């Protein structure tokens, strides 16, 4: 049983912000910023590729609700709502969860990527699009 399943079952203590029959929302032990909350579906799914659409939509609905509460609580300048899918993307617990992280202009959270828009190649983008569309 994974660590989040154990938390959901009450075998491991956590600080619960919100809970219902479908999700449990807890403060992340590794606070990226004050109030960093995890939205965890109670049913085990390893990642976003495994979760059914209804459960994922519900979890995102709750993530939005948590984000609003964090903005009101901390008067933050923004919020990141994100999911890491796979080890290469930073996933360390293989039970799907959504991070809701309050953001401030002067914080140290770093969720960025390099702007490569100057290398835009319309032909290459068309090829990439066609490859992706084949798998939809």
Task: Specify the CATH homologous superfamily.
Answer: HIT-like
CATH architecture field: 2-Layer Sandwich
* CATH class category: Alpha Beta
Quickly count the domains: 1
Major sheet characteristics: 5 strands, antiparallel
Order of helices and strands: HEEEHEEH
Describe the structure.
By secondary structure, the protein is α+β, with helices and mostly antiparallel strands. The chain has a single domain, classed as HIT-like (HIT family, subunit A, 2-Layer Sandwich), CATH 3.30.428.10. 30% of the residues lie in helices and 18% in strands. The chain is built from 3 helices and 5 strands, in the order αβββαββα. It has helices at 3-8, 53-74, 122-134, and strands at residues 16-19, 23-27, 37-41, 78-82, 98-103. The protein has a 5-stranded antiparallel β-sheet with strand order 1-2-3-5-4, with helices on one face. The protein is globular, with a radius of gyration of 17 Å.
């Amino acid at each position: 049983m994974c660590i989040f399943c154990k938390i959901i079952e009450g075998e491991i203590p956590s600080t619960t912000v919100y809970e219902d029959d479908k999700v449990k929302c807890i403060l992340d032990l590794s606070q990226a910023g004050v109030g960093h909350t995890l939205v965890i579906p109670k049913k085990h799914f390893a990642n976003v590729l495994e979760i059914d659409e209804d459960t994922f939509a519900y979890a995102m609905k709750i993530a939005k609700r948590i984000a609003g509460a964090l903005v009101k609580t901390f008067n933050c300048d923004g919020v990141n709502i994100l999911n890491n899918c796979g080890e290469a993307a930073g996933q360390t617990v293989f039970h799907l969860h959504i991070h809701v992280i309050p953001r401030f202009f002067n914080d140290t959270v770093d969720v960025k990527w390099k702007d490569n828009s100057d290398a835009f190649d319309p032909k290459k983008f068309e090829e990439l699009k066609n490859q992706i569309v084949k798998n939809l």
